Amino acid sequence: MRTPNASYCDGKSSAQQAVHLSVRQTVLDWVSSTTSGSFDIAQVRLDPAVGQTDAVIHLPTGGMFIVHDATFIQAWPKQISWIERSAAWVEDRISTVVALACLGLAIVYAVARWGIPLMAIAIVTLIPLGIDARMGEQTLVVMDRVLLAPSQLSLTRQQSLMNRWTRYCASVDCPAHQLLFRHGQKMGPNAFALPGGVMVLTDELVKLAQQDEEIMAVLAHELGHVHGRHGVRMVVQSMGAAAVLLAVTGDFGNVTDLASALPSLLLQTGYSRNMEREADAYAIDSLQAACVEPRHLATMLGKLDAKASDTGWLDSHPGTQERMQLFTAARGCHQP
Asked: Could you tell me the pTM of the whole model?
């Protein structure tokens, strides 16, 4: 046996046995006059020497090595923390880690972009129509109190537009709805559909239009939102993961509690790209069935958005330029 540089204690008695310690990479080897063994350095704990005391290596068996050779301790491998081990693991597998991170981000994006909207479509089919009506009523109350004012259009002008819209719906299959006039104040020229079929037309938009067909075209688009129940869908989508719980419990009454949030959703985010495209497609079919040129909607879009742009890949809404081209190209009349 080589010259001993430590003593072994089994931790059960005060007896000590001379041993020689050596380190082989990450393994601690020991040899005595009668036997030998080894321990993984990660399994032992080193208490450095303090003052005149010797360093002690605590073993997983409960025993210990009392080290008498200071030079051996100086050559002791540096303990690697779990943080350093984790960093080393990541560094050794950096390409895998990057790939997993990218996959995770892609999954999160896909769920937000397509998963939640698809889930919202399925959930909305389970929600009774009465919930739409209650939500629309509550939303209108909030908007009348905060954003809108009574219409300043003459009763004659309002009745004229109502009659024109009634004739329009007589020629196509309009879903149940209610047309209301309001002064837009800071909202300016606008038209929007609320859950339950309420459609609001502002005075400013009426004055912006040069002919009634332009107003009919805008209303046809809003009717598409009513047909698709987009207001309720938007609220369900905004619930995110909570929408899953909604579907499981069937407690749809809680949806109406979110009615106060719908005005800000409409103003700040608006309907999604898919919802706008669904409403546009509905408007084109409806306008052509009523023999109203869809180009009138392109004209109004141009007036409402002077800086018409194309749709960007990450845009949440279809670009005005794309929509104007769609309506301009959709000419014709479906009536025989």
From this structure: 0.62
